[in-house]
Amino acid sequence: MRRPFQALLLLLTGAGVLRVSLFSDIGLRYVKEGLQPFLVASGLALCALGLIGVRRDGLALFERGQGHDGAHSDAVIQSSHGHDHSHGPRIAWLLLPPALALLLFAPPALGSYTATRNNPKIVEDYDRFEPLPAHGPAPLSLTEFIARAQQDDEQSLKGRTVLMQGFVTPGKDGTWDLTRLLVSCCAADSQSLTVKMHAVKAPPADTWVKVTGTWHPRGALGTTSAALALDVATVQRIAEPPIPYIDRAPPVD
Q1: Fewer Cβ close by (within 10 Å): the C or N end of the chain?
Q2: Which CATH architecture fits 113-237?
Q3: How far apart are CA 44 and CA 99, in angstroms?
Q4: How far is residue 153's CA from residue 73's CA, in Å, rounded to a whole number?
Q5: What are the phi and psi torsion angles at 199 (to 5°)?
Q6: Closest-CA residue to 139 (of 64, 25, 250)
Q7: Which DSSP letter does residue 175 get?
Q8: What does pLDDT average to in each consecutive run of 10 residues of the chain (253 residues)?
């Protein structure tokens, strides 16, 4: 790869990183919110290096056009080191497709394909549970639903309608999973939270939905035998959250 293309590749990569981190929240599909400033800094650094390279190469071409002995200098470099330093490794071209992808279209957040292949998230023990609202569906994150089903001795889910949101992961035997993916650092270390949905036909895979329903009575509530499942009453399609890797209770309309 020649030097002018090296500088152009740095500029393209930096611009792509800035597009998804500084000018939009697309970068939150790939890293945690706290790491977004580091993405911005990386994009600025890559653009700066690219501009420095463009300026350097432009000056070199200008000097050669003015009759300076740049060619002689290049020959000295080649003869003293045995190769031309104006060329970079060809493998650098592999950076071009992801750079263009970030600029032209944004790869989606992780979804059902990942959820069926990664490790389930272990929900930590709760010290106590807040009382559920007295009326209406109780909005819960998947984390809290799982914890209440298997840890709450008072069986607060018994007979209660709950409200949750996530994306659809196809299942078997007419069931499907409501899923959330959580990350510690970035999308590469994601873990899944899943609650099995009964009684309603599955929407298309990866569709984000808000569901209401009651705990599917299998096993004993408040113990690890309790099914992590819901008998669904309603399903409403929703837009993907801007930060898809945070498991929050849905807002109540």
Answers
A1: C
A2: Beta Barrel (2.40)
A3: 14
A4: 80
A5: 80, -5
A6: 250
A7: -
A8: 76 83 74 80 87 78 62 45 55 76 75 78 89 93 96 94 96 88 77 93 94 96 95 95 88 79
